[in-house]
Amino acid sequence: FLQVLCSFSSQVATVTDYGAFIKIPGCRKQGLVHRTHMSSCRVDKPSEIVDVGDKVWVKLIGKEMKDDKLKLSLSMKVVNQGTGKDLDPNNVSLDQDERKKRTFRDYTSQKITLEAVLNTVCKKCGCKGHFAKECFMQPGGTKYSLIPEEEEEEVAAAAAGCERDEKSSVADHPSKKRKK
């Protein structure tokens, strides 16, 4: 009976912070429905979903031998709670859940090494920080510089404004037009 992944109706034996234990019909065993398998929505408190003695439809999704004890994993979210119909007969959503768990990797312990090119001079343009084969400059072409940040432009404009106030006599003459 435990080899077949099928849905069955049973009773909730106990409710914990991490899930609910369900009685397995025909034996003394219980299986755990973890809170992540109670609903397709996030469940923070299993006691808000089920109570002791409630009848629920569950599906056996896994079994594991641990310390000479058989531990059974059950799911409520892959079974229609009204009819008991298996909503995931080919275990597609269970496989997707497993893949999601496996895709997270913790890389915090690994060091990041930057392979920046330092102290190099380009033979084409004479600039530092890159090689000739990576140069975007044509010999004798236009050199490009970084555009200043907005804050730097505002500071430069404010400084220019102060200079204009000091030279206001020149700016007040209508005969001298200023080009922009």
UniProtKB/TrEMBL annotation:
GO terms for cellular component: nucleolus; ribonucleoprotein complex. It is found in: Nucleus, Nucleolus. Keywords: Acetylation, Metal-binding, Nucleus, Phosphoprotein, Ribonucleoprotein, Zinc, Zinc-finger. InterPro entries: NA-bd_OB-fold, S1_domain, Znf_CCHC. Residues 155-180 are annotated as: Disordered. GO terms for molecular function: RNA binding; zinc ion binding. The keyword Magnesium does not apply. Residues 122-135 form the CCHC-type domain. Residues 162-174 have a biased composition (Basic and acidic residues). Pfam families: S1. It comes from the Eukaryota. One of its GO terms (biological process) is RNA stabilization. Residues 2-77 form the S1 motif domain. Interacts with PNN. Associates with the 60S ribosomal subunit. This is Zinc finger CCHC domain-containing protein 17. The gene is Zcchc17.
